[in-house]
Specification:
globular, alpha/beta, five-stranded parallel beta sheet, four-stranded mixed beta sheet
Amino acid sequence: MDKNHLVDLLSRVRDGEMSIEGALERLRKLPFENLGYARVDSHRCVRTGVPEVIFCNGKSLEQIQGIVQSLSRHHVNVLATWATPEAFDAIRRTGVECRYHDMARIAVINPRPVEAVGSVVVVSAGTADLRVAEEAAVTAEVLGSRVKRLYDVGVAGIHRLLDVMGELLNANAIVVVAGMEGALASVVGGLVPCPVIGVPTSIGYGASFGGVAALLSMLNSCAAGVSVVNIDNGFGAGYQATLINRIATGARGGDATSEGGISPTVEDR
């Protein structure tokens, strides 16, 4: 339940369109709905402007379906991350409207258009990093950011990065996705005036230790404006970039309408 849904609920009681008992039944599930295997945070959108995100990895298909059904009753643009094609097929079988972003491994439940604002740039060092880069880009787009993708501009061919400097300099936040030694985050951080979020990926040969080498390299960046999320955490980077972008543009989460914004509500069914 987000702010708009709560306002609508109270307005219906005020106008006599809903009984107090009916409203209490709706509110009874706040701040969460206990499904036994999950306590679904139906109040999160009121606090943060974004509904609870479903991390599919490690959950059974039945558990994913139950959480989707709970969240979809009150929210749109609900993200399900690390969703395999099998998980998406299970989500579709619940009957909810949904869309799948194959490269990003993200399912969007009750997808609705949003008013894209500001500028978030997602940069990848190589083509092998695209899965994580797309997770960041799709996350930022669904949450209301205008996103520009600049892929395969790693330090092995630095002229490729310098060729897109104009787009980097116009960004409010930049997500840099890189595996191997992860040097790209430091390079970008030393060239731009906005925050840079480094995402180390697990791409690389044995000495990269599944992304640990890139993680340590980014954490030891000489560029002062670089922060770092966990290995392969494109979602976390896209979310953080959106928060920065909102502040830069003066946008707010949780106050959207069905015509646009971060998280418009679903009409009562």
